[in-house]
Design a protein that fits this description.
alpha/beta, Enolase-like, domain 1
Length: 381
């Protein structure tokens, strides 16, 4: 099996006037994705997603990757990242940059999808001899909205849908943080897992004041309380609080993730399977993290393709140092609950996270069937 074509497909869905939402460092009025369609000489198609502004990363894939990947075997996915870092693909000076890593990820994941289809096995079995059949989805919700949504509304909906865990956006002020966290905890109940996400909007001093004000609400982790580049800020917080710290959605490439883990400043690392470098890089990161007793939980704010890649990876996360047959810690999996037809309409059978458990597909490759009619509906030039 050899690759005969690589096609990036930029997608967009405008949310409409007054419907922008997001976190404390910015909101979006458009949901986007860049799919990567890789076709083999026997007609088999592999899919990946590059998590970056669609037209820009699509151009990058066409310029840097398409010709270099045509003729490759899907098994070459294992070393594709090395070719980018050394400059064989894209040039030496650009391999570590965010857009290049996103492009690499989209192509690399598509090659793994081809590989799984060629062998008749899901990607999770190729990544790990043993894997989980299901994960525990948590509702990523209670966003900062342009229309001033009552924070209780999305949390009540998450509970109605059967979620037993949730992550919410905070980081505008200590008073607002307390209000939003208290609201979420009261609606979720005492036994549910609750995470908070600052999106890096505070200094370490401001974050510490906020964390001390909300830690009574029994938080599973605190995500990006300071900007991703503020390693000293993470270190100050790690030394001052008992609540686990999480980061990684704004990191990309093996070197940034290696630094994040080895600096010993976070308890949970969160690669995105649309820009972390691909499955081989994510597998390396999982080994690195668990070797250093750091948990790994993917960040997921992608289309259905990136979501499918993330769940295949999440299913392989080891429980070390706990024995796999005795671990009681759930594999928490982020599931965005905001408006996004690129997540809900691109698959013949969309993922259903309701009910407190999410099954991991066991069909070959990513385990999904793309509705190409829907893809064309959201495609942009």
């Amino acid at each position: 099996m050899r690759v005969v074509s690589v096609e990036p497909i930029p997608l967009e869905h405008p949310l409409g006037s007054g419907r922008a939402f997001g976190g404390t460092r910015g909101v979006t009025d458009t949901r986007t994705a860049t799919l990567v369609k890789v076709t083999a000489d026997d007609g088999t198609v592999g899919w990946g997603e590059a998590f970056a502004p669609p037209r820009t990363v699509a151009t990058l894939i066409e310029e840097f990757f398409a010709d270099a990947v045509v003729g490759l075997d899907p098994w070459d996915a294992e070393t594709l990242a090395d070719a980018v870092y050394t400059g064989e693909i894209g040039g030496y000076h650009f391999g570590r940059q965010a857009f290049t890593q996103a492009a690499l990820t989209g192509v690399e994941v598509a090659l793994w999808d081809l590989r799984g289809k060629a062998l008749g096995k899901p990607v999770r079995e190729l990544l790990s001899g043993q894997s989980h059949d299901a994960v525990t989805p948590y509702a990523s919700t209670m966003y900062i909205t342009e229309w001033g949504q009552d924070p209780a509304e999305p949390m009540e909906r998450a509970v109605e849908e059967g979620f037993t865990a949730a992550k919410i956006k905070i980081g505008r002020s200590v008073e607002d943080d307390v209000h939003r966290v208290r609201t979420a905890r009261e609606i979720l109940g005492d036994d549910a897992r609750l995470m908070v996400d600052y999106n890096g909007n505070y200094t370490a001093t401001d974050a510490l004041e906020s964390i001390r004000a909300i830690e009574e609400f029994d938080l599973t982790w605190i995500e990006e309380p300071v900007p991703p580049e503020d390693v000293d800020g993470y270190r100050r917080l790690r030394d001052a609080i008992d609540v686990p710290l999480a980061a990684g959605e704004a990191h990309h490439g093996r070197f940034e993730f290696t630094d994040l883990v080895r600096e010993n400043v976070v308890d949970v690392v969160q690669p995105n399977l649309g820009r972390c470098g691909g499955f081989a890089e994510a597998r390396y990161l999982a080994r690195l993290a668990t070797t250093n007793n750091v948990r790994i939980r993917p960040h997921v704010w992608n289309s259905a393709v990136g979501l499918a890649a993330a769940i295949q990876f999440a299913a392989t996360v080891p429980s070390y140092p706990m024995r796999s047959d005795r671990s009681t810690r759930p594999i928490l999996f982020e599931f965005d609950r905001s408006e996004n037809p690129l997540r809900n309409e691109l698959l013949a059978e969309p993922f259903d996270p309701t009910g407190g458990e999410l099954s991991v597909p066991d069909a070959p490759g990513l385990g999904i069937e793309i509705d190409e009619t829907a893809v064309e509906r959201f495609r942009v030039d």
